[in-house]
Design brief:
With 326 residues, the protein is of the alpha/beta class. It folds into two domains: 186 residues, D-Maltodextrin-Binding Protein, domain 2 (3-Layer(aba) Sandwich), CATH 3.40.190; 119 residues, D-Maltodextrin-Binding Protein, domain 2, CATH 3.40.190.10. Helix content is 40%, strand content 21%. Strands 1, 2, 3, 4, 5, 6, 7, 8, 9 and 10 form a ten-stranded mixed sheet that branches. Helix 6 links the parallel strand 5 and strand 6. The radius of gyration is 19 Å and the shape is globular.
Length: 326
């Protein structure tokens, strides 16, 4: 399997800025209460899917009086693996949670990350998000078939922009290429640290096509600045007027699940309390509204079932990466 290690430029500065907001490993103390104070780490830049999901959760926890004081911090870089490494070293602190999902699973493998999800305590899977393929409004490609024809003719000439290497966007680019008869190893994929950067690249013409969660591009699609060509859901989704890849003859579906994990070493009672906290949030009407507004699919899962899901899904993602030569 090919492994690519991303440059660590800016890591020290990032950790220095965020370290003050997160509890130091030595600060873990018996009796810490996540319902009094909770820190949520988004291992990505502000404005992306992980950041959005955590800030939505933050608002629900506040509005429902589930947590007295809840804050979100950002530790961006390398598909979430910089944040993962930082989080794994926090120590057994039950007042810390980190967002994770498909993107991080891929980045762990592609980047050869020393830290893995085995170094965390799974708490809950919250939702699944499907991905949209978009082009600028002035693009010559008005349909998916037109883009695929040009992509087949010159795979490397059509730059594809999305999230980190090995993440859901990258996987979908490779799967779509293969489904269209293109060798995945020949595509020109450019990784960005968040949806905002990918959007800028699209609008500036740096990339021909962008891939991200629907919400990342929805405003620009509605404004007419972007044209959506395809959606990665297995079936049409209410409120999203974009044909699926499968409907257009490309037999590919892919979801980007999002969930939260706690640091390693917390007690069974602390894990149970965090699970109860997230279950209360996920069962609230405000969270149901969050899912509907963002077009996320409810896929709530906890306990041993979530443990088994992570293990199986990491193996699935590893298999896709190896098979596609990414």
């Amino acid at each position: 399997m090919k492994r690519r290690v991303l440059p660590a430029l800016g890591v020290a500065a990032t950790l220095a800025l965020t370290g003050l907001a997160a509890v130091d490993a030595s600060g873990s103390a018996t009796g810490a209460d996540p319902r009094s104070s909770l820190t949520l780490m988004a291992p990505a830049a502000p404005g992306g899917g992980w950041d959005l999901a955590l800030r939505e959760a933050q608002q629900v926890m506040r509005a429902e009086s589930i947590v007295n004081n809840v804050q979100v911090i950002n530790v961006p870089g390398a598909g979430g693996t910089i944040g993962l490494a930082r989080f794994a070293d926090i120590g057994p602190d039950p007042t810390q949670l980190m967002m994770t999902g498909t993107v991080m699973e891929g980045a762990i493998t592609v980047n050869g990350s020393a830290a893995t999800l085995d170094d965390t305590t799974p708490i809950a899977r919250l939702a699944e998000d499907y991905l949209v393929l978009v082009v600028p409004a002035d693009s010559p490609f008005r349909t998916l078939d037109e883009f695929l024809d040009a992509w087949r003719a010159a795979p490397h000439a059509q730059a594809i922009g999305g999230g980190g290497l090995g993440g859901a966007d990258h996987l979908l680019a490779g799967l779509t290429a293969r489904g269209a008869g293109i060798e995945p190893g020949t595509i020109n994929y450019i990784a960005y640290s968040g949806g905002g950067e990918a959007l800028t690249a699209l609008l500036s013409g740096t990339v021909a096509l962008g891939i991200s969660g629907f919400h990342d591009f929805s405003d620009q699609i509605e404004a007419g600045n972007l044209r959506a060509l395809a959606y990665s859901a297995p079936n049409p989704v209410e409120g999203i007027d974009v044909p699926t890849l499968t409907e257009q003859g490309v037999p590919v579906t892919l979801s980007n699940w999002r969930g939260v994990v706690a640091p390693p070493g917390i007690t069974d009672d602390e894990r149970a309390e965090l699970t109860a906290l997230m279950t209360e949030m996920a069962g609230s009407p405000r969270w149901a509204d969050t899912l509907a507004r963002n077009k996320w699919e409810d896929s709530f899962l906890t306990g041993e079932e979530f443990d088994r899901f992570i293990e199986a899904d990491q193996a699935r993602v590893d298999g896709i990466i190896e098979e596609l030569g990414l």
